Amino acid sequence: MIEIEHLTRRYGPRAVVDDVSLTVQQGEIVALVGTSGSGKTTLLRMINRLIEPSSGRVRIGGTDTATLPPHQLRRRIGYAIQGHGLFPHRSVAQNIATVPRLLGWDRARIEARVDELLDLFQLPPAEFRNRRPQELSGGQQQRVGVARALAARPELLLMDEPFGALDPVIRAQAQQDLRRIQRELGTTLLLVTHDMTEAMFLAHRIAVMDHGRLLQCAPAREILTRPASPLVQALAGETARPFHLLSLSQVADLAQPGHAEGPPITPDTSLRDALAQCLWSGRDALPVKGGGVVTLAALRRAAAGAVPR
Ligand SMILES: Nc1ncnc2c1ncn2[C@@H]1O[C@H](COP(=O)(O)OP(=O)(O)OP(=O)(O)O)[C@@H](O)[C@H]1O
């Protein structure tokens, strides 16, 4: 668990992070979103003390981070940034092994961990272990960056726009990978993103910042249906709101008995994709694999904020 208490960072008279308090539970994903320059990166970097707070406190698993030497703290916290920050002259395996080596793990344990992570990120170890970062695609480099951040099984992973540079297809894949891996490992994750769709897909709660202040921290559905202020509403994207709401639920949540023509849709498809299929194929209902249907009428109700099930 991370407890952020009245955290403030000033540059001169100006507080760029202003009295922010936030608790993140073990295994939870919180996405930090907000206007440009609102203090998201500064808040993230105060957690691993790449930036020192002017006042306030961060506790990780009950320990006040100010009581630990920063280098020791950083070995307990994974950190992944846009552009990956891989060491160009080191192999993939050496990059991933960075923190385990600093922690003095023995060679066999490090090698086993590197291969385990490469497998987890679907990069076959025999093929990728000895490559240099420049011999990888952008998406592969990004996965190695996250694997490196996770290498020493950190209790907490901080990510700053980790998928910002990826094209939409690889980005969607990277988001799915991250969600799967986070579930498998149970890592607590704090993520800065500019992409509200990404925040909604990944996060249990979304923290919205503006001018250094935390305006609201709540599950996506609440941010969309009960924004704390007009600015939160604007940041959540007013025109995209129905589509965001649909993206939060799956066909399985809305399926009802019945029969419909055409190719079936799988129960784990998002309602947003189901709507797209209805519109594109001109159908009023889609059959669901395994039985039942999802109807355009039900999708419309869900898009207007009705909670499925
Ligand atoms: N070293 C510094 N000295 C003075 N001001 C700084 C310094 N670092 C950051 N700032 C200011 O602090 C504010 C918050 O910056 P920060 O990078 O945390 O914002 P952000 O929300 O991550 O922005 P973006 O979304 O544009 O990446 C900005 O106005 C920035 O100009």
Automatic annotation (TrEMBL):
Gene Ontology BP, a term: quaternary ammonium group transport
Matching Pfam families: ABC_tran
Top-rank lineage group of the source organism: Bacteria
Residues of the ABC transporter domain: 2-236
InterPro entries named in the record: AAA+_ATPase, ABC_transporter-like_ATP-bd, ABC_transporter-like_CS, P-loop_NTPase
Gene Ontology molecular function, alphabetical: ATP binding; ATP hydrolysis activity
Keyword Nucleotide-binding listed: yes
Alphabetized SMART domains for the sequence: AAA
PROSITE patterns in the record: ABC_TRANSPORTER_1, ABC_TRANSPORTER_2
This protein's UniProt keywords: ATP-binding, Nucleotide-binding, Transport
Membrane spanning stretches: none
Family (UniProt): Belongs to the ABC transporter superfamily.
Name of the featured protein: Osmoprotectant transport system ATP-binding protein
Organism: Paracoccus alkenifer
The organism's taxonomic lineage, starting at the top: Bacteria, Pseudomonadati, Pseudomonadota, Alphaproteobacteria, Rhodobacterales
